[in-house]
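Two proteins, back to back. First:
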Amino acid sequence: MTQSGFLKELYSEMLLHSDSTTGLLEKLRNYSPPSVGRVMTKSKV
């Protein structure tokens, strides 16, 4: 998705994926979001 320009690299790092439900739940437990500035401004809406 990032290579085709659909998703920026920074946001793709927020996606969690796993082959098992237990693996995904573990990732959710340990997740801490990256610090990101404001995504949209009023002028872009």
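And the second protein:
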Amino acid sequence: MIMIKKTLTLIAALAAALTAFAQVKVSVHETAQDQPVIPAEIYGQFSEHLGKCIYEGIWVGKDSSIPNVDGYRTDVLEAFKALKVPVLRWPGGCFGDEYHWMDGIGPQENRKKLVNNNWGSTVEDNSFGTHEFLNLCEMLGIEPYISGNVGSGTVEELAKWVEYMTAKEGSMAELRAKNGRKEPWKVKYLGVGNESWGCGGDMTADYYSDVYKRYALYARNYSGNSLYKVACGASDYDYNWTKVMMQNARTKMDALSLHYYTCKGWTGSKGSATQFTTDEYYNVLAKTCEIEEVLKNHFAIMDAYDPDKKVALILDEWGTWFDVEPGTNPGWLFQQNTMRDAMVAALNLNIFQKHTDRLKMANIAQIVNVLQAMVLTDGEKMVLTPTYHVFRMFNVHQNATYVDHGRLQRLRLPRRRRQAPCLPGEPVPGQARHRGARLRPAEAEDRHRRDPQGRQDQRVQRVRQGPGRRPRRLHRCESDRQGREAHPACRLRRRPGNPIIR
């Protein structure tokens, strides 16, 4: 009996302690009818004829010693199936504006070879073309996203490509049947050019807006297939391009694209994918989080011309871009993948999910062996990257209802909750709390002033909490008199609305 009473007393005490430790109120929504649905295409992928993305990465040919299904690598196919890829962009990229689709159809042994002038001057045999790409998408239930050649192609070439893929009757349908495919494919997404401000034609926004309307006009809908036409958009901070396109062509397009890479810079070293300091780590995370501000700025311009949001924004190239791995072809853009890349992927996907009223698709670059890849291959060997596992974890959110995290209301924080390090002298609302320790703002400023070198590198400071109390540890990050601007780690953590630390 005594033992039972002691046990009940212990349970009651433990319950009381847990209640005191943290009281959290969560709002549970009985209905989510007012919440947006996250388009599956937000988790899209991008494949380009670049390095070993297509050849060796996806396609090895039927006669390869590498296990394959009709020429597609078996291990990569299985990886794609588990990933539940919703949409795949092809053939470029910059390659797309030099790709002539007629060279990639018919018997593979008769196809013309080409030199990939954009990426490493690789000679390709064109064995992976329209049929191979669309059949791959059909096998895996992937929505194809075709990037049309505007830079070096013609209006007629793009128009006939659309007819070849989607028409049931006519000369192009007869040619397709001759090449082994009687029934047309379903092709929804058509990109009219890629980076037309650069590798896709070096055009101005005004000039391209007229070119786009001409190409888009002759890309017809055949046999019940309805094209979703995507105009070439800006690179990250080029807001004028978005403005001009919305002024001149908004009624002729379904979407406008945007490209944004997490990259140190376009001249000199971009940094190593695997060898980096703590500051470089946080600089990459800070840079990738800037995408939300960039998106909002483009949204604002589009809202001014299209308040009903009839024109979508499609982020069809994004991800990390570092220096290539030593010893590899610099034109192949092969880089390794670490947990830093996984963090970048997760941060971006969380941002994208918040803005799907205008953002309808995002395609990370690229799916195999290039930039922030899902899969890396080396001959018969294959490895899944940390980024792959992030996308696999997130695939449950495809077409799911988005619930704003702001509706989870925390009324009282745990007393001993760990918080982000703050800088000495930085304004603190009320009292700074850290593992139960209390430090008044005046004390922090005084400690900073007493440092004769004007710099602190104190990983641990001891702060007394009151008479007779044991000193507590207070962790602080390295800083100087420049405040938060001097330390990217703190700058990232303290940024309002940052998704890492709420």
